[in-house]
Amino acid sequence: MNIPAFDTHHYVKRLTGAGMSESQAEVLAEEQSRLLENHLATKHDIALVQSDIAAIQQNIKELEARLAIDLKELEARMAADNRELEAKLTADLKELELRLEGAITARIAEAKVEMLKWIFAVLLGQTAILAALIRLL
To answer: With 50 as the cut, is the pLDDT of residue 87 above it?
Structure first.
């Protein structure tokens, strides 16, 4: 670790000059030196952090690019799914229309047959009544 030079000898001289005992000044100088070594960031430390930041930024750019690709693929799949679903719904609706049309046509045919039966029965009844009236007259 390359930290700025801390002149412990000069520090001890100043403290003893101010009235502190030499042993106390030496302990204080050692602690001050230890704190500087443990808590100051060096140019190397800063370069490492900057390198880490650059790597993280590169990872973020790569993730963004992959995410953009994934989103485009997802959009394409969703569009294809929507087209497939629309085609299926259209086919189902067409089938339903044909079934309903067939059912309606069958019901109309049944109604025609019933009406013809009634008309035939009424005509037969009228003919019988008319024949009976003609005999009576």
So the answer is: yes
Confidence class of residue 4 from pLDDT cuts 50, 70 and 90? low
Asked if the model's pLDDT at residue 105 lies above 80, the reply is yes
Closest CA to 14 of 29, 4, 27, 3: 29
